[in-house]
Structures are given as C-alpha cells and as structure tokens.
Design goal:
Blueprint lengths: L2 H52 L1 H30 L10 E5 L8 H10 L3 E10 L2 E3 L5 E2 L2 E4 L3 H5 L5 E2 L14 E4 L1 H8 L9 E4 L2 E8 L16 E4 L13 E7 L5 H18 L8 E4 H6 L3 H32 L1 H9 L4 H37 L14 H27 L3 H5 L10 H36 L10 E7 L8 H16 L4 E7 L10 E3 L1 E2 L12 E7 L3 H5 L3 E4 L13 E5 H7 L9 E3 L10 E8 L14 E5 L4 H5 L7 E8 L7 H11 L6 E5 H8 L1 H35 L1 H9 L4 H34 L11 H26 L4 H5 L3
Parallel strand pairs: 5-10, 7-9, 17-22, 19-21
Antiparallel strand pairs: 1-11, 1-12, 2-5, 2-11, 3-4, 3-8, 6-9, 7-10, 8-9, 13-23, 13-24, 14-23, 15-17, 16-20, 18-21, 19-22, 20-21
C-alpha cells in the first residue's frame, strides 16, 4: 500500500472523528435546549396557576362561562356522534339499503318476490313483517314486540347469534316447524339468561315455538321501524296474497362493486316493467341507504342543536376574551417590567397563552361535569323517536372531543389578547402619571367587534327559539277532534287464547266492556282496533255508489277503524249528522258505516250524506257489499298530530267478519278507551283485574292515558324547543354579562374623560346617553349581522316548523326588542354608576 493511500485513510478517520464529536455536541445541545424549554414551560404553568389563584373572581367567572359552552358542546356532540356519525351496528353497514313503496310505506309479498328474483345489484334481500304475539306459560302473560323475518335477514345484516343459530332457508318455506330467535333483553327477562333455553320451547299465541338462538346484547332490528322487537320467527312469503296487501319491510345488501346509484337505476328498471304488467302496484318505489332512513327525520334538528351550542361556545369565548383584554390592561406595568428585564415578546405571549389554556382546561373540567348531567337529562327527556338513544353516553370519543374543544377554545380566546398585551411599549407603560383613560383605537375596535358578534350570535339563537315557541303554540292549538283528558287506554289481545274463537270473541269484548263500565269512576267505555296517534293507521280504497269506475290505482282511499258502540261518546268526538254505531249493528243487520266530515263534504258536497252508500270491495268482484252511511263525525287526528285532514271511515266491530273470525294476531285484539271522572291512570289496576277475571292468560299492554299519547305525538318539537330555548337563555345571559363587563370596563377607563365632561357642565342624563348609546349602536350592528344568520337558520329549520314561516316578522321583531332591552339594562347600570363620579377626583385620576 502506498504512503499516499495510508495518509488518505488516516485523514478520513480524523475527519470522521471530528464530525462525530460535532454530532454529539449538537445532540447534547438539543437535549439541553429541550430540557430548558420544558423547564421554562413548567415555570410558566406554575406562574400562570398562581396568577389565576390570585384573582379568584376573574377565574371563576371565566371558568363558568367556558364550562357552559364546552359542556353543552360535549353533551350535544355525544348525541350527534351516537345518532348521526357512528355507523349502524351491522357488518359493512354502508352497503345496507331499504326499499320502500309509495314513498315511505311497506311492500306487498308479490312485489318483494319479484324484486328479489329480478334484481342483480344485491348480494341478498330480506323482508320483515310486524308481529305482536302473546307469550304465556309464565306467571304473567305478556304481549311481545316481534317480527316475522325471512331467513335471509340475519345474513343480510351480517350479525351472528350469541347462542345457537338463526334460521335455515327451509324454515322460511310453508309447512316448516315453529322456530324462534330471542332478543337478549327478552332472554334475560323471561329466562334469566339461562343458556339451556336453546332447544327449549316457548308458548306464543297458544302455539309451541322452539328456541333456536339468542341474539347479542346490542342487536337491534329494525332500526327505524318496530324498534322494540325482541323476538323473531321465520316469515313465509306468500306471493299469492296479491300486490295490495302491503305488509313487508324490505332490506337489501349491495353486491360487491355495486354502488347505491347503480342499484337505484336497476330497481327503477325492474319496477317500471312491473308497473306496466301490474298497473298501480309499483309506483313511487324508493331505494335508499339504511343509515339515511334511520336518521333522516332527526338529522336537521340535531344539526341545529349542534350549531346552537357552537354559538353558545363562541359567545363564551368572546366574553372571556373581553375579560382577558381588561386583565391585560390592568397588568400593563407588570408585562412591561418583564419586557424591560429582558423577556422577549414570544416569551410574554407564551405566558399569556398558557394562562388561557389553563383557563380552558379548567372550563373543560367543569364542562365535563355539566356534560355528564346534560347527557343524562337529554336521554331522560329525549323523545322515543330518537334512534339509538340507548347508546348515547360520554365515551372516549366524546372525551377526546371535549379535550380538543377545550384546547382550541383556549387558543381561540387567548391569542388576540396575548398578541395585544405582548405589544405593550415598556417605556409608555412604565411612565408615571400616564392617564389610564388612554387606549389604542385598534383595541377598542376589537372589543366592539367582539361585542357586536355576541349580539349577532345571540340574535340567531333567540330567533331559532322564538320560531320553535311559535311553532309549538301552533301545535298546541290544533284541535284533535276529541277530548284527551281523563281518558285511559290499553290493548287487550286475544290471539292464541280461548277468547279468540269466532263464537267467543265478540262475547268476550262485550262482557269486558260491560264490567268495566260498572267500575267506580268510569263514565263510559268502548273499544277500537287502532287508537288514534298510538296505533297503526290502515287504509282501504273505496268506491262511492253512482260514481264512474276508475282504475284501482287511482281509487280514493280512507283510513279505516273498527269500533264498538259508544266509541264516539267515550272519545267525545261529536256526531254531526245521523247516529253513532249501536248494539244492533251486527251481522244480521244491514251493513253500515260512519264517515268523517272531510269525506262527506268531498264526495257529497251540498248533499245529505246520510243514506249514501260506499263499498270497500274491488270492482272485479262478482258481488258488491254496500255500506250505508248512518253518521258523520267531526274530523279527528289519526296517525300524525300535524297531518292534513283526510278521509276516515268507521266500521262496526260486530259487523266485521275479519275481526270476528280471522285467527291472525294482527287483528285479534282491541284497544279499550275508558273515560273517567277522576285520575284516569289510577283506574288501570282495576281494569286489568277485570280482564284477568275473564281470562287470566290474556296480557294487558300499552296502558296509558290519552294525554300521554298526545304528549308523545308532540314530544319531538317540545324537545327541540326545550333545547333551543335553553341554549338561547344561556346565550342571552352570557351576552348580557359580556355587555355589562365591557361597559363597566369602558367606564372605568374613561373616568378622566367623564369627569372632564361633567366639570364642563354635562348632566348625568348626557353621560348615560353616551354610554348607553355606545352599547345600543353595537347592538344594532350585531343584530343586523345576526338577521342574515337567523334567516339562514329559519330556512334550515323549516322542515320541523309548523304554522309559522321561517322569516316570521313577529318573531324577528320580538327577539330584536328583547336583545335591545338586554343591551339597555346591561349598559344602563355602569352608565348610572358613571354619573356618580366626583369631577374633582376624576380629574386627578391616574
């Protein structure tokens, strides 16, 4: 090896050693700097903690304001997360869809069979049918919420049972043995969670069913309809029932690689072919994601509430920013002294931001406690229509949201005060004798901007609450057509019992009503198949005698009810013409019907409807059974409190062979309606004992007063009103506190100016006018900006408003006057205090 080569290698080693030494020195320096930075931040945290502890009033006020905003946001986020954000608890839920007929209705078995056989966009398709069997054999009979489902339903959802199995394909065919899958809650309640029940039996509607499986604890199906279902049995799809017997809910899973749009296009082609072949049976068929169907009705309301709590938090941040600006002004000399002693602007800003973050974290901690209570209240007060309400809670996602919001809030309300405070000129701040009344124009503008923004956001919330109040007043003013007070209702089914026999059914209900009417406190009693607002709403097409025949798809339809004598008297639905149903309207008498005034005025305008005839039979039938109109009653609300008036017909129970003789559980029940002279709910045990005195194996379910039924029908708007009104009240309170605080601070900083004005002859009224006028100008500016947001909010809320326009002028004027009054009062108090300033003392004010 040459000398040159060895020298070159030696030199490379030397250079490598020096480079290694430099790298080690740099790493050590970086570690030292990181350690010093950590120590400095820890020192700033300790100092900030001491500073906050020295001003407990300031700290408490700021923490309370932030806790209200952060806690409300965390509580509403928990609801939004559980209902809107989290996926449905099924396998690949984004591929699940629901197919609906006539916009939002069930599907006929024949249509389901054709869709399943002719479509290629779906990996699987299943159907479910509502079922309410009576479970007997235990200490007390029980009516259950259940579903008949095709065996394909569970594979479509992708959910395996906790115990046993689900249904086999052959169990969905006619003639299969009775099998049943239990829900977890029913398994625990009825069988104490005994795993040996799999393979055992249960008695439903008098028949023995074999338990083949138990579903997991969190399994709920269907998520938007029949949500109480806790038991499933195989469904036999009978396409021979025709295309008018719409009773099935259809669910499907998209095939791999197929988009929702492609599936919608294929379904449109399939239903178009079927509509040509069977006119009037495949109109208005919709395919939509299951998640959209589950949350569609509640989504707008929750988004409005989320926006509302966001405004509350912004108002709280503006308030704390005001307070920090005032506090920074009081600490000008301290901050100037730190700067003069060598602290950089970055160091001063960091100190102030750390104090802001400490405030935010304290507010977040207090907000956590408020959120816990708020979530409990939301779940307790929330209407039953909120999907997945049982899953709402303060989980890890909500806690992470709360932490992130707290940190962002701390930066949000702290950065501008920190920037302005760190820009203090130490020479000016340390001068003795400087007038405390002098402040920068930019700082005053920023305060004015904050105050105007508080007015704007408060106005938006007030208008939203005002629209909900007006809407709720309109809802309360709706005449239901009956008197719900002192009215007790309950469902008494006879399916599977000896009372279900055709020769026993009418006798049983007549005896039951006779005994109930003899109870102390009972004024009258009757029965109906489907209770208004609480039961199913079934429709039937009808024909009017003497009118030209129309295509069945275009025939008029009416909601029909089956009633016992005395129903209208018990409900206090006025009979406007003719008579009520009576005991003589049985199978031996001519068939009669009672119609509502809407149907009578529409089909016999200007004529007496009594004696007119209609039929429920289809035109192709060989013979027609005509029903003679014997009475016209006042319009009554049926399925929806706010639904428009429509045709209603009432058939006598004692003339309806289906209700007298058919064995189907869907018609083997009646709903008692009992008018009392005192507390209706207190009579429930006595009525239940009367039922069991006739047959101890009959369950009594859905025991409730009609007042409770009406309250439930308006629960969603009442809940929305409660939340928006609460948030608006918090917003107006925070805005008032913010206005008062800013005006008080402004007066304290203008002591010298006010004293000079009064020394030159200004009267107290002039001082009040100047101070209050400043606040009112800012209120007008903020309200003007808030009008735009309020109009946008009103349009977004239009889907759940009733009887009021989104731009209702009365609401806008009332909320504006309220906000103006708040601004007037909040600014008058410090203005009044300013008039008591002694001019001589003020002119010597430092």
């Amino acid at each position: 090896m040459s000398i040159a080569t060895r020298a070159s290698g030696l030199w490379r080693k030397v250079l490598h050693g020096r480079a290694t030494e430099r790298t080690l020195d740099t790493n050590e320096l970086r570690v030292e700097r990181n350690g010093a930075l950590f120590d400095t931040i820890a020192q700033d945290v300790r100092y900030g903690t001491r500073m906050l502890a020295r001003t407990p009033a300031f700290t408490a006020a700021a923490v309370l304001a932030l806790a209200l905003g952060i806690g409300a946001n965390a509580a509403i986020f928990s609801v939004v997360d559980a209902v809107l954000i989290r996926p449905l608890p099924y396998e690949n839920p984004e591929r699940l869809a629901v197919i609906l007929h006539d916009g939002d209705g069930p599907v006929s078995p024949a249509n389901f069979a054709d869709w399943r056989d002719q479509s290629r966009s779906f990996e699987s398709m299943g159907a479910a049918e509502y079922w309410t069997p009576n479970a007997t054999g235990a200490e007390e009979p029980e009516k259950l919420w259940a579903l008949h489902v095709t065996p394909s339903i569970f594979p479509t959802l992708g959910i395996a049972p906790l115990l046993g199995r689900t249904f086999l394909a052959e169990e969905g065919e006619r003639g299969a043995e009775h099998e049943v899958v239990l829900g977890y809650s029913f398994w625990q309640r009825r069988f104490g969670g005994d795993p040996r029940i799999v393979g055992g039996s249960i008695t439903l509607d008098g028949a023995q069913y074999t338990v083949v499986g138990v579903m997991p604890r969190d399994f709920k199906f269907a998520p938007f309809w029949a949500t109480k279902a806790e038991l499933w049995a195989p469904l036999v799809v009978d396409a021979a029932k025709g295309r008018e017997a719409n009773s099935l809910r259809v669910f499907a899973r998209l095939a791999p690689g197929v988009s929702m749009r492609q599936a919608q296009a294929e379904m449109a082609a399939v239903t178009t072919r079927l509509e040509r072949e069977y006119p009037g049976t495949n109109r208005d068929i919709s395919l939509q994601p299951l998640k959209d169907k589950v949350v569609g009705d509640i989504r707008p309301a929750l988004l409005v509430e989320l926006a509302a709590v966001g405004f509350v938090l912004l108002i709280a941040c503006a308030n704390v920013a005001h307070m920090l600006l005032a506090r920074a002004a009081a600490r000008r000399r301290e901050l100037a002294l730190r700067t003069a002693l060598g602290a950089s602007r970055v160091r001063v800003m960091r100190q102030l931001l750390i104090e802001s973050l400490l405030l935010a974290l304290l507010g977040g901690g207090a907000g956590l406690l408020l959120a816990l209570g708020g979530i409990r209240a939301l779940v307790a007060l929330g209407p039953a229509g909120i999907p997945r309400i049982e899953t709402i809670g303060l989980d890890a996602r909500a806690l992470l949201f709360l932490l992130v919001v707290s940190l962002l809030t701390g930066v949000g309300f702290g950065v501008v005060p920190a920037l302005r405070a760190s820009a203090t000129d130490p020479n000016d701040a340390l001068k003795e004798g400087g007038r405390g009344s002098t402040e920068g124009i930019a700082r005053n503008r920023f305060r004015s901007l904050l105050m105007a923004s508080e007015f704007a956001m408060a106005l938006v919330l007030l208008v939203g609450a005002g629209l909900m109040i007006r809407s709720f007043i309109a809802l309360r003013a709706i005449d239901p057509g009956f008197d719900p007070h002192e009215l007790l209702t309950m469902v008494v089914p006879v399916a599977g019992s000896r009372e279900a026999a055709p020769e026993r059914r009418a006798i049983f209900y007549e005896q039951l009503l006779q005994r109930v009417r003899t109870l102390p406190g009972v004024v009258s009693a009757s029965a109906i198949n489907h209770l208004p607002l609480a039961g199913d709403e079934w429709g039937r097409t009808f024909r009017v005698e003497g009118r030209p025949l129309v295509h069945p798809a275009d025939a008029p339809a009416a909601t029909y009810r089956v009633v016992f004598p005395g129903y209208f008297r018990t409900m206090q639905i006025p009979v406007l013409r003719g008579r009520d149903v009576n005991e003589s309207d049985d199978l031996s008498a001519p068939a009669v019907v009672v119609v509502n005034e809407f149907l009578a005025s529409r089909y016999w305008p200007g004529e007496d409807p009594i004696g007119k005839r209609i039929t429920l039979d289809r035109p192709e039938r060989d013979s027609t059974s005509w029903l003679t109109v014997v009475g016209v009653v006042k319009n009554a609300v049926q399925g929806d409190w706010t639904a428009a008036k429509h045709e209603e017909i009432y058939l006598p129970f004692l003339q309806n062979r289906s209700y007298l003789e058919d064995s189907g559980a869907h018609i083997a029940y009646q709903t008692l309606v009992i008018r009392t002279s005192r507390d209706a709910a207190a009579l429930a045990p006595a009525v239940r004992n009367v039922v069991w005195s006739l047959d101890e194996n009959l369950p009594v379910s859905e025991v409730r007063t009609m007042d409770a039924v009406v309250a439930r029908s308006t629960a969603q708007p009442r809940f929305n009103l409660f939340l928006l009104a609460t948030f608006a009240a918090v917003a107006i309170m925070l805005a008032a506190v913010g206005i008062y605080g800013v005006m008080s601070y402004s007066v304290s900083r203008r002591t010298h100016e006010i004293g000079l004005r009064m020394a030159l002859g200004a009267r107290p009224a002039d001082v009040i006018r100047v101070v209050v006028g400043q606040a009112l100008v800012l209120a007008v500016v903020g309200a003007s900006a808030g009008f735009v947001g309020a109009l946008a909010l009103g349009r977004f809320m239009s889907s759940f408003l009733y009887g009021v326009r989104p731009s209702d002028p009365l609401t806008f004027l009332a909320t504006s006057f309220l906000l103006g009054a708040v601004a007037l009062v909040a600014s008058y108090i410090p203005a009044r205090r300013a008039t008591r300033i002694d001019p001589l003392l003020a002119l010597r004010h430092e």
